[in-house]
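2.7 Reproducibility. Because tokenized structures are sensitive to small changes in the input, we list the exact sequence used for UDP-N-acetylglucosamine 1-carboxyvinyltransferase, including any N-terminal residues retained from the expression construct. No trimming or masking was applied before prediction.
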Amino acid sequence: MQKLIVQGGTRLRGKVTISGSKNSSLPILAATLLTKDECVIHRVPDLSDTNYMLQILRELGAEVERASGTMNIKAEKIVPDTPYDLVVKMRASICVMGPLTGRLRKAVVSLPGGCVIGDRPVDLHLKGLEYLGAKVQVDGGNIHIEAVEPLKGCTMNLTSKYGSTVLGTDNVMMAAVLTKGTTIIEGAAAEPEVEDLANFLIKMGAKIEGAGTTRIVIEGVEELHGAEHTVIPDRIEAGTFLVAGAICGDGVMVRNVIPAHLKTTIELLQSSGYDVTSTKDTVTIMQGTSPKGFHLTTRPYPGFPTDMQAQFCALACTIPGLSSIKETIFQNRFMHVSELKRMGANIELDGDTARITGVPMLSGAPVMASDLRASAALVLAAINAKGTTKIDRLYHIDRGYEHLDDKLSSLGAITERIKE
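Resulting structure tokens (single pass, no recycling of outputs):
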């Protein structure tokens, strides 16, 4: 089991290049199943999650070649049954369900695994496919989907009590592109990653309008063809490094980003007293002269992203005053709180809200990562803490951050991976 040793008390300075988006790459890789032709995908990050997805594609029958972030995928002959041992390792594997249903009118997918951060049912995914005409059964931990008759377009709403569903929108969109007639998704997820998937599908010959809004219109086509696409930058990785610059930086620039995708993160940092400036594809943060507490509530895009909540929790622990964070997207997404408290953080939990009073200095301690973003928060806190921090369950970091410790080391952090 790998662990990360972080020596605290260092300052970060310099430039870091942001990788391609994990949350775009996974559904885009799955979408290559929609055509028999070869697809070429650039800037796919080297992560355990993307590696699992490539393994799933191979098991389904696709030919996959990879070199330096570029994937050549040809799914000429595929089968509808996904491998249990791979699907249970990653929640996003559920996004093969849409393209398999669209192309083969049949899919067998195990209920997915991934981070344990609350109840995230796949009901809306299945509801959307049923609207299109598919029959769905869940038996023995497997989802069985079959459409005896051709799928037909319709109007549906994919909003739940927790807001829109990103992967659910992805799945329905991928199934609908090969469906007869017009499909309208009301309450669609508006995240940039959904729009990125739609842009790839359009390159393949799909007819889609409204991606990036809460209403997506899809006109079905007979077939799709191969295409070449470059994945957008990872806005959560970029936001993580900006928070690192706020916590312990003397000038950190993130490169290869789309600043518009970071709007809420940038605005919150600025309102908290940090100097943040942007160009066309970079964002730079300088150490604040008088940082202060903040109050945030997670919301679906374009609101504040739940995937940045843990990192800002780490920031709140280190700045003067009282901050509050309300989580409205996922239950149980404050599991990092107990670990930050081991490092000396002053945090009180009240249901879905954390109230944090900044302390002069955190202390290094042995801590355990509970999920992907919580692990990043612990790393950021450790860099600023006094002494040494040992972070266990490092595999969570590798699910979503490409070479995070190497990139932080290039900025001046002192980190070391060990096996125990």
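The first helix runs from residue 22 to 31.
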